[in-house]
Amino acid sequence: MLSRTADNLFWIARYMERAETMARLLEVGSRIAMLPSAHGYRNEWDSLLRASGTADGFARKYGDSVQRNIESYLFFDRDNPSSVASCITAARENGRIVRTALTTQVWDALNSAFQELRALEREPRSALELSRLTEWTMRNSALVRGAIDATLLRNGGWDFLNIGYYLERADNTARLMDVKYYVLLPRADFVGSGLDNYQWTTLLRSMSAHRAFHWAYGGEVTAAKIADFLILNRQCPRSLMTCICGVQSHLDRLAADYGRETEAQAQARALRAALEGLTVEEVFDEGLHEFLSRTIRSAADLTSTIHDSYLSGGLR
Amino acid sequence: MYEGEAIRSPYARLGDWVQAMPAELRQMKQAEAEALFRRIGITFAVYGEGGDPDRLIPFDMFPRVFSGAEWARLERGIKQRARALNAFLVDVYGRGEIVRAGRIPAHLVYRNEAYEKAVSGFVPPKGVYSHIVGIDLVRTGPDEFFVLEDNCRTPSGVSYMLENREIMMRMFPELFRENRIEPVDQYPELLRRTLASVAPVKCDREPTVVILTPGHFNSAYYEHSFLADLMGVELVEGQDLFVEGEFVWMRTTEGPKRVDVIYRRIDDAFLDPLCFRPESMLGVPGLMDVYRSGGVSICSAPGAGVADDKAVYTYVPEMVRFYLGEEPILNNVPTWKCGQAEDLKYVLAHLPELVVKEVHGSGGYGMLVGPKASSEEVERFRARILDDPGNYIAQPTLALSTTPTFVAEGVAPRHVDLRPYCLVGERIELVPGGLTRVALKEGSLVVNSSQGGGVKDTWVLAE
């Protein structure tokens, strides 16, 4: 497959996953903001902007982090390259470029999302509830994902799409967890309190993993259990472990198909091994924020290796 | 559709179909068709007219019908013309017999902008310069067709031929059960075979075919990706290709892969910055050297444009006689060349009756439709012609046939033209059908989509 085609597929997946994360972030933000006792110490919407890496761009454009502005910036704003609208538009444009590598169903899902987005943009903003926007995003992201799984040839293109999904998802899970870090508790003795737990639970809800967590761990919700679930648990579809295993298995498929390995396989294997040797206690010892930042950097390094190995066409 | 008062036989069943279709159903179907086009994303300007890449071309549900016998004659005429055009191209880049014989003026060939000195003396594989010949035709009587134009470079619109059929079959399956309509969906396979059959001399294996597109901003990008998809070949941009050693390679996730045949949808001038326009980013540096040394085939071959110029067009019947020793089956529209004193005199005297076109114009721009023009417009055009007579040709307005077309009030006659796509490789082949364009405005003779034209399905009935 053409390197350029693979690159476009990789980015379709990343944009779709990113759009979904933006919607999830909006959901976390609105739920956390609904909690009365956190008020007065810090505006929770700030934490959301920081975790999504869009705080500076937002500050330049809007200044005040009130919900309506945040919604505009994270959902509609074309100046924000990570907004839902920007991501879906970019995914559809990439899809148009690689029509030959997509089934009609996948194209249809991408194109319909784009057409519906344009209709949403024409509606008066007062008529648009936040929940409607986030649900719309998740539904469309699921439609694209489902069309890919149900109809696409299991060839290299499918692998690059999945690698894009997993890498973006790992990055996003790390960022969503980081929201929790940025949401400061009023005082240290609030750790383990009802407020603390409410925030952790909200995080789970934002990943649609609230019930799954209870099935997997039962009973009490603690920071350690949630961190274990989102970082190390192979059953959790969004955990860092699941994502890195996913990347590795698709890289292995490529190596088998092409009959040769690249630096990318070795790097993915090392990342997985590091996670496998890790306990949640060690994560907290390092500091959750520090660990997450390191994870985000590793994912970025792996991305650039994959780019050099497959997507740039430079390989001889 | 009519012959005197009677419905022409190929249309007989369609008359009943229209009668039986209530207006509401028709509107519903029309909306359904548009939704389908938009969903599939068939949004491009036919014939490279530019404009909004997301624009839909109006689709008329009333098919145009040819009987098997009518088509058989057309097919012979088109193939004959395609053979003559290719013989001409090989000749003018070789010995130039037709010029030496005085059958076409030397300056029309050798001073033509589309004449590529870079390929002089080069004979492409199988002696084919133009592999996809799009011939635009109009009908003026039951057995009378005229050629309006030959397109020897990269004729577009074939995706419409295929998608129009697809959508008609989806919406009106009963029509296809009741009528015996020849299929057209073998076109991509024929195209692939045609391209593979002109593999370069150095290719010693199953040839790798690619389509070269200027990119997704091009108005015909949908067509490029559609054809690549149906043929199962890569759709590449210039940046995906590079020259190394004696061959052209494409960048893939598995490393470089050799490319043997390039179906290019970009113009000559952009093919190779080392040979043509140095600032072009669309092409591949060094491509022409590989081409001339037999390392890659380019379809259509660089230089093919010299055969489809509007001034050269007038000599195509002469080409048929000269190279094939046959009488042309399809006639040209009688044409006056303003560059010639006698013709110019006639044209200036009869401007209000004539259609005047720029030799290099396209898309319905830069033309005068005399009978429809105001006297000021005629005078303005007269001045333009006098300014540069060699740049204009003139033709009579023909009594063009019409086909029934759905309009707001029901069904009404509208003017149409037809572009069949003739494939030339080891063999010359033609699918039974083509792209019918229809002038949706009442009385209009201009079928270009930029001037309010639409498209419709074209049927050839099995005998």
From TrEMBL, chain A:
Ranges in a coiled coil: none
Pfam families linked to this entry: Alpha-E
InterPro entries: ATP-dep_Glu-Cys_Ligase-2, DUF403
DUF403 domain span: 1-311
Protein name as catalogued: Alpha-E domain-containing protein
Organism from which the protein derives: Neotabrizicola shimadae
Lineage: Bacteria, Pseudomonadati, Pseudomonadota, Alphaproteobacteria, Rhodobacterales
TrEMBL record, chain B:
Entries under Pfam families matching the protein: CP_ATPgrasp_2
Source taxon at top rank: Bacteria
Coiled coil stretches, renumbered: none
SUPFAM superfamilies per the UniProt record, alphabetical: Glutathione synthetase ATP-binding domain-like
UniProt-listed Gene3D superfamilies: 3.30.1490.270, 3.40.50.11290
Domain Circularly permuted ATP-grasp type: 63-439
InterPro entries: ATP-dep_Glu-Cys_Ligase-2 (IPR051680), CP_ATPgrasp_2 (IPR025841), UCP005522 (IPR016450)
PANTHER family cross-referenced by the UniProt entry: BLR5612 PROTEIN (PTHR34595), SLL1039 PROTEIN (PTHR34595:SF7)
Protein name stated in the entry: Circularly permuted type 2 ATP-grasp protein
Organism annotation: Neotabrizicola shimadae
